[in-house]
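Hi everyone, sorry if this is the wrong subforum. Our group has a chain we'd like a structural model of before ordering constructs, and none of us has done structure prediction before. Sequence below.
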Amino acid sequence: MKDNYENQWTNPGLRDLLVQEGQWMGIDLTSGQIGQLLSFGRELARNNRRFNLSAIVEPTEVIRKHIIDSLAAIPLLPRKDGKLVDIGSGAGFPGLALKIACPKLPVTLVESIKKKAAFLIQTAALLAIAGVTVSDCRAEELGQDAGFRGQYQLATARAVAPLAVLLELALPLLEVGGFFIAYK
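Answer:
Right subforum, don't worry. Here is the predicted structure as tokens:
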């Protein structure tokens, strides 16, 4: 039996809400991107109990408080083709949402909680989102790994830690001149 929250994702008004909220922020999404973002929200609702992903599961709230909030960085991105690392990805916000909206952007999602990392891997595969890597280690460990250190042009973090801590986590991963967007 499907969870009530999952069934709510079939409401056609959600597509309109996503389009309107995106346009209000200056973000034009294709029909395919809208479909993927709604499928992402549905997967969040479907898997929330199993993976403990978010207290926010009502579809309009997920769209406004998770998806649109994540996409708010798009107008600020200096480029949409550099490599992005998302620190503390959790349920995939903002990293996976940004990847859907900017498909040419290679994204590494860093999530140290194994079950949340498993959700990210499963969801990216289910939605056939290419160019996503999931790292299930801590960001401070990744920053010490030569394969990741200084390799990203963009870094994001949302609801992870105080700004000073976020800077310590992000800076080792960014190349010189890279950009960090802290959702605060």
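For your construct planning: Residues 142 and 148 are 6 Å apart (CA to CA). The chain has a mean pLDDT of 93.
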